[in-house]
């Protein structure tokens, strides 16, 4: 029945209305449309009935199985549940309502036009954290008042990872690049002050592969790299972040020998708050600037990557900072 078009259906209905006979309708159908096959009696009766009831002989789409879950009541319950707790996952909403996860997702997307958004998770600040941040700021302002040249004598240290296949660009390059699961990288440390950059220092093993910064390798870096590169009889200050290797007692003792009462760190002469933002030149300028320069040369291996980092850091002057 479904292969008959609208033209054939209309012709059959008109012939039946004129003749009032199924047999006569089938006979004249052959002559009118010049077709060997004629509609069945049941098809003609159905088309005539549809014409009388609806005024149309168009093929109607089957209604299908009625929706048993995405009902108005369930949609209202999902909306009320989401409105009460916007941060609860769809799975937990489904468990609370006794509805399957997939149905809740369909209701959220198709019926309520809602989209999931991933929240950025950050450390919560307690009242004690705020008080410690305020105490540090007051202490630092007092030191700066007594020593106006402090900003010219402050070493701000930090480390960063440079992956071999990273790309930095002013616009999205829309490139597809295949790389291994564990992308080769180097871990770079340097310290910045008003006269330039002391570094880079690469935390690596005997094979030249990047390693985690532990207490042992951090103190080795201080004794074997930082100390020899400091000017003689200096009065410099040293600032570091709150990494575990930095806060260890041995690290603080070693740094205190190089910078007596001039170490800005947790558990040091000028204690920082544990969740104080790293507002240093490394974070908001140097690493981004350095990566934009390094990756523009597209190094092909770790040796070329480290050599490019050395060359670009050597070109950063005090005027640039």
Brief sketch in words of this structure:
This protein has 321 residues and is of the alpha/beta class.
Notes on the structure:
The protein folds into three domains: 49 residues; 40 residues; 184 residues, Ribonuclease H-like superfamily/Ribonuclease H (Nucleotidyltransferase, domain 5, 2-Layer Sandwich), CATH 3.30.420.10. The longest helix is centred in the middle third of the chain and has 20 residues. The protein has a five-stranded mixed sheet with strand order 3-2-1-4-5, with helices on both faces. Helix 1 crosses helix 2. It contains twelve helices and five strands. A hairpin with a 2-residue loop joins strand 2 and strand 3. The model has no long low-confidence stretch (mean pLDDT 85). It is elongated and about 120 Å long.
Helix proportion range: 40-55%
Task: State the CATH topology of the largest domain.
Answer: Nucleotidyltransferase, domain 5
CATH class of the largest domain: Alpha Beta
What's the mean pLDDT score?
Answer: 85
Amino-to-carboxy terminus distance? 82 Å
State Rg. Answer: 38 Å
Low-confidence stretches: none
- Count of domains: 3
Beta strand count: 5
InterPro entries: RNaseH_sf
GO molecular function: nucleic acid binding
Keywords:
321 residues; alpha/beta; Nucleotidyltransferase, domain 5; 3 domains; 12 helices
Question: Would you spell out the secondary-structure blueprint of this structure?
Answer:
Elements: H1 6-19, H2 22-33, H3 41-54, H4 72-84, H5 90-97, H6 101-111, H7 127-146, E1 154-163, E2 185-193, E3 196-202, H8 215-226, E4 237-239, H9 244-247, H10 249-258, E5 263-264, H11 281-294, H12 302-314
Parallel strand pairs: 1-4, 4-5
Antiparallel strand pairs: 1-2, 2-3
Helix pairs in contact: 1-2, 1-3, 5-6, 8-10, 11-12
InterPro entries: RNaseH_sf
GO molecular function: nucleic acid binding
